[in-house]
Design goal:
The N and C termini lie close together (7 Å). The chain has one domain. By secondary structure, it is an alpha+beta fold. A two-stranded antiparallel sheet has the order 1-2. The protein has a two-stranded antiparallel ribbon with strand order 3-4. The C terminus is likely disordered.
Amino acid sequence: MRAPADIPRSLLGPTQRIFWNSQGRPSTHLNIVTEHPLLPGRQTMIPMLVPGQIELGRLLEGQPATQSQYRRAVDYARGQALQGALLPSFDTVPDALAYEQQWRQDVIPQLESRMPSLRALMNYSGSEP
């Protein structure tokens, strides 16, 4: 679903879309922690919901990512980093997971505060906005 105009682009992931996970909560990134694509030995957080991602339903249902899905996300992150995007960098996986947890605590409430307008769009019976 395209995001309503009142949702800041900074809250949305690379697709600039909102997806609904199996618990009925909004998902924009579905982040994972992986090795930084440009800094060997460092960890980073990257989104799985990237342009061209395959089998989104599997991811949104909470199923493990396939190798193809994982590779697509890593390739997208690498491309973004090569174009100057700053990916967070951490010494350890626990540090990256702590950052991701804090990120969720900051972003998800901002999305959910806009739930009435999002739910209205979900229930719209016409074509996708």
